[in-house]
């Protein structure tokens, strides 16, 4: 009886289809109709026309071939990139852009990590930030202006709300403007969490720099500074994308701050609107607490002090 | 002898086309492998890594892979049904449409029209073209099988029927999208759901493009070229049904530790491990088939292609499930191990088996012998060495990457910045390019051999 099926191709095809559909229904079709597959965070906002245009360019250039957009709930991953990805962050992503290969770093928490100026310069010439980076240069996309009518059609296809004037405002924007706007919104539905991972939590460091004035520590600090800080604050602390460290201004107010505030800012980064010693931050500096241990941060502080004396 | 009835022109056309697209895909593969360590080779706007990589994967999966599958399946179907194709003219049209679609696919991807779904990057107008191609294939294959002149359907036909059915379901569902103009669309599914659908598709593309049709070739050409019958018919039945049942559950192993609901991930991992059994069902069947006379490995040059091919299939189907386990995934996911795994499958199993099938078919069609067994053996050793060097290099890079990403100092802070990790990949990526080059030279030996066999056959025919 069962052997008959190998003589009846149509019956065979039907049985094969049923066998194939069982797993399909159980793991794909059925979940589709459950709430768990359609989560949406309260803070999650639809893409603006400029952001959507940027996301389209991200897809067009195949950025997802080298960059993932999902932080796994693993200790070192959260330390390196930020809070792990939540299911409710992606409700407006058609398709999802989690990627499958990390040739470059994960971008799930790139939004707000650096100032716009960082992204503009980095897209134009990644190698000026990281000499050995293998990322292609993308400065050429600033030569192309956005097409507002096209972006509007894309907004409609996604069912996003938009204002007419936002569409009109696109006409003098370039593709690079859009891509940077997209970068800055990725992962921002989740509030930035304090960096984790060190044996001592942030405010728990020594209030005094244990290496103050130590030339050995300063030269170790220089090495770290050149790799991590110089690209924004300049090789002599003169500033650039980030503010100058040698002009006796700190957090946009005249007058220096003690070492332990330096420590905290390097450790936690800056966040727009956050207040430190009565001074308001503008944001844009990423936290280094996950990447630099306590001693390294103090070494950097030591080195910055030597720059200021010059 | 009613051989003239068989529409060998179409089979030949598909084989030559697939070899052509294979060369394009492999050369682009070499190019992007160099881009990884020499970013100056990115030439915007059309030839940056982000655009070329999808031309590489699509060119080889659709151009070389599916092209060869169409042609060789037509050949197998005609032989196993003992009749010509039911619609030979439709098959010819199929060939032309196929080449037009692949050419348009390559151009559209270079222009950046990209759905960003892995292995389903083509935009919606081309998706419709692919569906039409598939329907034509299905009509011809099923029609010919229904009108067959042989009572039983042999194992290879089961695998071909399963391929026809499964790919249709997978391709149509995953490509459902909301068009926003002729060159752009948005996935019908969003976020987590989009991920689940895509990797159900993505992994089963491996199952029903790189596995079932290749097994159809294996089960047909291994006995044909060795003259040895398949070891166990019953084993092939069990292996077939459990394979096509289990595959569809496994896509979520691509999404381990992502925000996809945990139960789907776990189910995916469990079925992935189960899949070792049916995969090895075919491996064992292959080994025992040749096991009655291992001398064939020396006396028949094709046997070693098939046995090496099925060996890499066996290794792949243990490696893959290992990768799916959470603890291993946490180390190697997103690293070079993953493309390393894919390349052992495509360069070791798929290309090896397909090339051997073509070695068998071309002399048959041209009524001649292979031009040179020596050249075929050179081809064999070069692609074997190239592939092994490639895969092993990628494994090492992958483990190193994963380990550097995870490494911490005594106080718990990260030991390496991302950049410090990246730089350590460069020597391995250079070695990978060299390995790819060795593989490419091997493929050139193959193409030369096929070309010379065709020439020899045509000359003989024109003299007769």
Blueprint of the fold:
The complex is a heterodimer of chains A (310) and B (464).
Chain A: H1 9-32, H2 49-60, H3 75-81, H4 116-124, H5 148-158, H6 164-168, H7 175-185, H8 215-228, H9 230-233, E1 249-250, E2 253-254, H10 259-268, E3 275-276, E4 279-280, H11 294-309
Antiparallel strand pairs in A: 1-2, 3-4
Chain B: H1 8-35, H2 49-81, H3 88-110, H4 124-146, H5 155-174, E1 177-179, E2 185-187, H6 191-208, H7 212-226, H8 233-246, H9 262-274, H10 276-291, H11 296-299, H12 301-324, H13 326-332, H14 337-365, H15 373-406, H16 418-423, H17 426-463
Antiparallel strand pairs in B: 1-2
Helix pairs in contact in B: 1-2, 1-3, 1-17, 2-3, 2-4, 2-7, 2-14, 3-4, 4-5, 5-6, 5-7, 5-8, 7-10, 7-12, 7-14, 8-10, 9-12, 10-12, 12-14, 14-15, 14-17, 15-17
What do you see in this structure?
The complex is a heterodimer of chains A (310) and B (464). Chain A contains eleven helices and four strands. With 310 residues, chain A is mainly alpha-helical. Chain A is elongated. Chain B contains 17 helices and two strands. By secondary structure, chain B is mainly alpha-helical. The model of chain B has no long low-confidence stretch (mean pLDDT 96). The two termini of chain B are 17 Å apart. Chain B has a two-stranded antiparallel ribbon with strand order 1-2. Classes of the chains: A mainly alpha (310), B mainly alpha (464). The interface between A and B is large, with 91 and 102 residues.
Q: Which whole number gives the mean pLDDT of chain B?
A: 96
Based on secondary structure, the structural category of chain A is mainly alpha
Outline type of chain B: globular
Q: Roughly how much helix do the residues of chain B carry, as a percent range?
A: over 70%
Average pLDDT number of chain A: 92
Taking all Cα atoms into account, the compactness measure Rg of chain B is: 22 Å
Oligomer: heterodimer
The first-to-last residue Cα distance of chain B is: 17 Å
Helix content of chain A: 25-40%
Run of helices and strands of chain B: HHHHHEEHHHHHHHHHHHH
Percent strand of chain A equals under 5%
Strand order, main sheet of chain A: write it out: 1-2
Please give the count of helices of chain A: 11
Q: So what's the overall shape of chain A?
A: elongated
Q: Largest interface, by Cβ-Cβ below 8 angstroms: which chains and how many residues each?
A: A-B, 91 and 102 residues
